[in-house]
Structures are given as C-alpha cells and as structure tokens.
Amino acid sequence: MKKTLTGLMVLSAIVLNTPVVQANDVDAVLSPQSDVTAQIIHLDLNDATLEELQQLPGVGVSKASAIIEYRERVGGFLEVEQLTEVKGIGDKMLAKIRHQVSVK
Predict the structure, then answer these.
(1) Could you count the other beta carbons within 10 Å of the beta carbon of residue 79?
(2) pTM
(3) What is the residue-wise DSSP string for 10-71?
(4) At 3, which helix (H) or strand (E)?
(5) In this predicted model, what pLDDT tens digit does every residue of 16-75 receive, in sequence order?
(6) Is residue 46 within 8 Å of 104, Cβ to Cβ?
(7) Cα 25 to the chain's mean position, in Å?
(8) Tag placement on the chain: N or C end, fewer CB within 10 Å?
C-alpha cells in the first residue's frame, strides 16, 4: 500500500510540478493539527467572547455584540437555532456558521 501511495504521490508531483511528500510524512500532512484544520473554529454560544464571535464568517463587531446582548437578555442560548432571533442574523447567516457553533 505504501509503495502504491508513494508511486501515486511521485506521479502526481511530476504532473503537477509540486514537491513530493514521503509516505512516512502522509500522517503528518493529514493530521488534525495541520494549518487547514487550525483555521476552523468551534464556539459555545453561551461562553464565546466578543473577539471569538468575530472570527465566525460574516460576524463583525455589531453582530457579535448583538449575540452577547441577546445571550445576556434571555439568560443564554438553549439551541443554536435561537441565533435567528438575534438582530442581523437570519437563516442564511445561520447556515454559514451553524457547523462552527454549539450550545452546551
């Protein structure tokens, strides 16, 4: 399997003119600590700070502030879908960030 994988990687590198990754390094490249996965965030809506909320796609200072204000006013989120009750967050915005937020 490793010989096949190495052969395919070398062939791909030649065709795409990219550096070759050794078979031993495949696990390191695909590990959860790689740069790609490091950019994905996951926040608890009831604990996230203003700065953390602003890391969500499409959420700036005003939406992050509105989320915190709503959370304080109602005593916390019971479910992620309550985000649509926050001013400026509709179904489209919820769909964008749903996979990055949760309620504990």
Answers:
(1) 9
(2) 0.62
(3) HHHHHHHT-PPPPGGGHHHHTSTTSHHHHT---EETTT--HHHHTTSTT--HHHHHHHHHHH
(4) helix 2-16
(5) 664 444 544 544 445 444 444 446 789 999 999 999 999 999 999 999 999 999 999 999
(6) yes
(7) 25
(8) N
